UniProtKB/TrEMBL annotation:
Matching PANTHER family: COPROPORPHYRINIGEN III OXIDASE, RADICAL S-ADENOSYL METHIONINE DOMAIN-CONTAINING PROTEIN 1, MITOCHONDRIAL
Signal peptide span: none
Protein's name in the database: Unannotated protein
Listed SUPFAM superfamilies: Radical SAM enzymes
Molecular function (Gene Ontology), one example: coproporphyrinogen oxidase activity
Transmembrane segments: none
Gene Ontology terms: biological process: porphyrin-containing compound biosynthetic process
UniProt KW keywords: Chaperone, Heme, Iron, Iron-sulfur, Metal-binding, S-adenosyl-L-methionine
GO cellular component terms given for this protein: cytoplasm
CDD domains: Radical_SAM
All copies of domain Radical SAM core, residue ranges: 1-235
Length: 374
């Protein structure tokens, strides 16, 4: 469920999100929430007509800033999905949350609405790093909001971190790691900063106002994070994700296993049985399509077998389970031999029939997979 609204656009963000000012909306967020949720519910009804019978194992409210929405409206979406499809008994329902947009009462209301997993956008615990990223939240709020989440009954609590921000020292990153591990959480996502063309941050780097990203320092920070998270009882289950036992994100795992999903909202992407499609990006055009009972789809593609295989390789290698050697041809296995010899691949798992990355191999995962793509 894509919620495309933010109070302010972060300098590094190139997601399909919009501020009320960009959309020239004068109504309050409550009114935006109510009217936009009506559109999502209408698209869910369209999904039912296309998909038919299905049981939903995960729902993910992403954005944008989903926590800007009213809990009663989030509840309406969950009810619509339940009414149209039904949920599995252990359905995971996640809400991405900006720490500055919730208090204890609102978190309790989201819990009552059906949210059972919450993910806070922490990014960093260091003020000057957040300033470079153009984030607006106060890092001191994280202990408060995560404790509130715990107190109102959330047992699955995650934080997102970003490392490699220009000007972020090793000491800064260690401070963020330590701050995250002090929180009552069972999941951490840590992503290397990617400077996307056209963003405010990219333009500032081009003008020389902000230094470029130091790739070697970024790699060192990944190793620091993995070491600290592991010692604290978090296990990596995907290149950028660590969890305590049972805390893995089932929704994200579904993506990495190339499962079927329906993405609702402006610019949302969907995948069903080898067909991929994506919605029109702008909220106004999305509203126009849905209001006319038209499909909001902008375009689609039917994946060729070679695309499906390439995506299987790209996604599988990100997981500890890796790629089964028996699914690779002799040329691919020969290409991988140097990586086995230099320790980028796990020798024990190789002997057991699996291509699985070692810790150092995770640093060059993209390079390895490029060399074995068909």
């Amino acid at each position: 469920m894509h919620i495309p609204y933010c109070v302010k656009r972060c300098g590094y963000c190139d997601f399909n999100t919009y501020t009320p000012a960009e959309l020239q909306i004068s109504e309050g967020l409550t009114q935006i929430s109510n009217s936009y949720i009506d559109l999502l519910i209408a698209e869910i009804a369209q999904a039912k007509l296309q998909v038919g019978q299905a049981s939903v194992p995960t729902i993910f409210f992403g954005g944008g800033t989903p926590s800007l929405m009213e809990p009663t409206d989030i509840a309406r979406v969950i009810s619509a999905i339940t009414d149209n499809f039904g949920l599995t008994d252990d359905c995971e329902i996640t809400l991405e949350t900006n720490p500055d947009t919730v208090d204890k009462a609102k978190l309790a209301a989201f819990k009552a609405a059906g949210i059972n997993r919450i993910s806070f956008g922490m990014q960093s615990a260091v003020a000057h790093v957040l300033k470079t990223l153009d984030r607006t939240h106060n890092p001191a709020n994280l202990p408060q909001v995560t404790n509130w989440a715990h107190e109102v009954g959330f047992t699955d609590i995650s934080v997102d971190l970003i490392y490699g921000t220009p000007g972020e020292s090793i000491a800064d990153w260690q401070e963020s790691i330590d701050a995250a591990l002090a929180l009552p959480i069972n999941h951490i996502s840590a992503y290397a900063l990617i400077v996307e063309e056209g963003t405010k941050l990219a333009n500032a780097i081009k003008r020389g106002e902000i230094a470029k990203v130091d790739d070697d320092l970024t790699a060192e920070k990944y190793l620091m994070a993995d070491n600290a998270f592991s010692k604290a009882g978090f296990t990596w289950y995907e290149l950028s994700n660590w969890s305590k036992s049972g805390g893995e994100s089932k929704h994200n795992i579904a993506y990495w296993l190339n499962a079927n999903w329906w993405g609702a909202g402006p610019g949302a992407h969907s995948h069903i049985n080898g067909k991929r499609w994506w919605n029109v990006k702008h909220p106004n055009l999305y509203k126009e399509k849905i209001s006319k009972n038209q499909s909001p789809t902008q375009d689609f593609e039917v994946l060729e077998p070679i695309q499906i295989e390439s995506e299987r390789l790209m996604l599988s290698i990100r997981l500890p389970e890796g790629i089964q050697k028996q699914t690779l041809n002799s040329d691919q296995l020969n290409t991988l031999s140097p990586y086995l010899e230099n320790g980028a691949l796990d020798a024990g798992k190789w002997a057991a029939g699996t291509v699985s990355l070692s810790l150092n191999g995770r640093l060059i995962a993209d390079r390895i997979v490029r060399e074995i793509l068909l």
